[in-house]
Design a protein that fits this description.
The protein has 203 residues and is α+β, with helices and mostly antiparallel strands. Helix content is 15%, strand content 32%.
Length: 203
């Protein structure tokens, strides 16, 4: 009788151990197949975009306002990097610098999503419009370390760029900006109409 009881107890222990092992293997397999990261650990690259910024209190009542300019984006080693510019050669990076303002508070509208739209003449494709998404540079927050090359955290700055293609014809081309925010407000920006202040592709 004691032998039979021992055998039953041993079988029960083995069954429980088998079930525990299977559960652990299943959990490990789910993690290896790209399941959600454990609580408290950030997701790695390729696991989706970061969450959008939280809307600020008091925003969303007035108009959304955007404004900006163009510059050369060519890296910190170039002394002309980030200089205001409206003449670009093929292969140069035309940089866009924009800001977005909540009309009711006068504060930065951190939820704005801004896109640049460039229209140029191509030697092979005719008239072409290209969209260039822009990135908010203040996402790290006001208490983040000051980025290299800045005097302070650029909370009011959105940046993007377009590389002038080899098939672009010389002469005047155009760009506009559009934006939409968390509250559904939309805004657009068009440069001043003076011909001399327009952007050009040059040799």
């Amino acid at each position: 009788m004691k032998k039979a009881s021992s055998t039953i107890a041993l079988c029960a222990c083995l069954s429980a151990l088998t079930l525990l092992t299977a559960t652990l293997l299943a959990q490990a397999g789910a993690g290896a197949q790209g399941g959600p990261p454990p609580q408290g650990r950030a997701a790695g690259p390729g696991r989706g975009a970061p969450p959008p910024p939280q809307p600020r209190a008091g925003h969303g009542q007035g108009q959304l306002v955007i404004w900006g300019d163009t510059a050369l984006f060519d890296g910190r080693s170039n002394p002309e990097n980030c200089l205001l510019m409206s003449r670009f050669k093929r292969g140069m990076r035309m940089g866009f610098r924009m800001t977005a303002i909540d009309g009711a508070t006068g504060e930065i509208e951190n939820t704005a999503v801004i896109t640049a739209h460039v229209t140029y003449n191509s030697k092979t494709k005719g008239r072409v419009t290209v969209d260039a998404p822009m990135r908010w540079r203040g996402a790290a927050g006001p208490n983040a370390p000051v980025p290299n090359g800045y005097l302070r955290v650029p909370l009011e700055l959105w940046t993007g760029f377009w590389t002038v293609p080899d098939d672009a014809e010389t002469g005047m081309f155009s760009y506009t900006m559009t934006a939409v925010d968390h509250f559904g407000r939309k805004a657009s920006f068009t440069p001043f109409p003076d011909i001399g202040s327009q952007v050009y592709v040059v040799d």
